[in-house]
Amino acid sequence: MPKINSDVRMVTAYRPHMKIIGDILATTKDDLHLDGGASVTYLIRKANVSHTRISKILSNLVSQGLLEQVSSEGTFRYKISSNGREFLVAYQTFSRFAENFGLVI
Amino acid sequence: MEFILENILNLIGFIVGLTIGILSYIGFKNTGSPTLFRLGIAFLSISVGFFVVWTGYMAEDFVLHKGHIEKWVQTLGIGIQTIGYFFIAFSHSIKSFFPKSRYLRSVGMLPLFLVSVIHIEHILRSVSFILLVYGAIETILSYFEGKKKGTIFVAVGLSFLAFGEFLGWYSFVFPESILYYVSISIKITGLISLFIPISKIPLTKIKFDSEFKEG
């Protein structure tokens, strides 16, 4: 029987939609050295989401005012907005709240 | 003594349930998370259930003076609490608790209409016990994955509530015994244990805002 190492298990573990959004927002917030914003490729690598899925999520986050879309050298880059920061704080707080019940939001 | 203990239990249950329910609802409004929505329904139901039983005891104490709480009020309160326990278990992705076929579901409801109110109370207590045990086991398993101290408090709280429910059911077999008081005391400890991790979460910075919803 083939062994599955812990890294592989982490990658294949199910992540709820909300957690993916949290990961994307956290990436755009934490990587402050990206003054022009994070590129889609960078977010795909950091948040570990497919291109098709991340495109839908990003357009959704932009339309809800949680991310700002910046056009730079023919490509789109994404920066977290002030609303996005507030949402991220709420997300992280209530994540901890739900974790106490053994749940993931 | 029985009335005092019951009043303490039901008031603590009402306050703890209401607090956790409101926090979960605020979380749902801020993040749009369905998990927090289910948790909110669960604890608000538990809160309402305890409140109904408490109202029953208060009505008996100050108005009715029959020497015992109205059975239908107690059954109603326990029934509402059971709905709350169901949603806690449901939050842990309970999948095969009820039969999928519509026919089996309708037949499964029949016993509820065939038995007396007292029997319904016993059934509800048994269902609550099963749901609480399920919730406690799932929470313990989550603790082993995340190793968060708060999770252990919730697991202990649910376990105590389950054990208290079990002893409470057992005290029907041996009425007037010390088991009843032990049952109530264990349930009170369980409710306090549920509240401990929630009281440590810094929620003061969170704004109540319905603008943000899940995409």
Helix-strand makeup class of chain A: alpha+beta
Mean of residue pLDDT of chain B?
Answer: 81
Largest interface: A-B, 27 and 40 residues
Whole-angstrom Rg of chain B: 18 Å
Following the backbone from N to C, one meets helices and strands of chain A in this order, namely HHEHHEEH
Strand content of chain A: 5-15%
Largest sheet of chain B: none
Helix content of chain B: over 70%
Termini gap of chain B: 53 Å
Give the SSE string of chain B.
HHHHHHH
Q: Which range does the strand content of chain B fall in?
A: under 5%
Could you report the average pLDDT of chain A, rounded to the nearest whole number? 80
* Uncertain runs of chain B: 95-99, 208-215
The radius of gyration over CA of chain A amounts to 15 Å
What is the CATH class of chain A?
A: Mainly Alpha
Number of helices of chain A: 5
Q: How would you characterize the largest beta sheet of chain A?
A: 3 strands, antiparallel
What does this structure look like?
The complex is a heterodimer of chains A (105) and B (215). Chain A is of the alpha+beta class and 105 residues long. Chain A is 57% helix and 13% strand. Chain A has a single domain (19-99), classed as Arc Repressor Mutant, subunit A. In chain A, strand 2 (67-72) and strand 3 (75-80) form a beta hairpin. Chain A is globular, with a radius of gyration of 15 Å. The longest helix of chain B is centred in the first third of the chain and has 31 residues, at 34-64. The termini of chain B are far apart.
